[in-house]
Amino acid sequence: AQRVTQPEKLLSVFKGAPVELKCNYSYSGSPELFWYVQYSRQRLQLLLRHISRESIKGFTADLNKGETSFHLKKPFAQEEDSAMYYCALSYQGAQKLVFGQGTRLTINP
Amino acid sequence: KAGVTQTPRYLIKTRGQQVTLSCSPISGHRSVSWYQQTPGQGLQFLFEYFSETQRNKGNFPGRFSGRQFSNSRSEMNVSTLELGDSALYLCASSFSQTPNTEAFFGQGTRLTVV
Known about the structure:
heterodimer, A: about 110 residues, 6-stranded mixed beta sheet, about 45% strand, B: mainly beta, globular
């Protein structure tokens, strides 16, 4: 079955430090991978998707098919990055997202 | 343009009752998906509708059902409510049903079953 694993429930780093949120997936085909973010008192929103190969708010994520990973990285964390981050997978031509359990990122001043 | 709107925002029901939740997608979006979010299970896919047809269904009992209207608005229904159905129910809409399309989420309906 398709599965997304985010091993860290909580992650705390200092402002200016690098950030890496881990995401591993299991799917035998070619998945579409996303990072969604939920800031305090806001709705869940798309941060980035692997197909776009873009950097959003300084975040990047590279799909590593060999390691079945899609880790989210940012070289210098900012306080406004504090939020809940969800890695998600979509497949089989469907708008059906399989989410990881999420990682709560806290950036300390 | 207006975002995804879910009504009501909060709901308290008694075990055994049924409930209907509503979702109005972003104008022009034809795909609507529903998710259940609980502290223990996280975000779980319930079902997806596209052009009034259910395209995908998650692993939930038959008590959970939904439908989509010709204006793309969607409703989900839960019958014979159980305590474990207490959750935040999220609706998401997207322009198409291809897997790399961005999903726009509503604020959710928080259902409490007592």
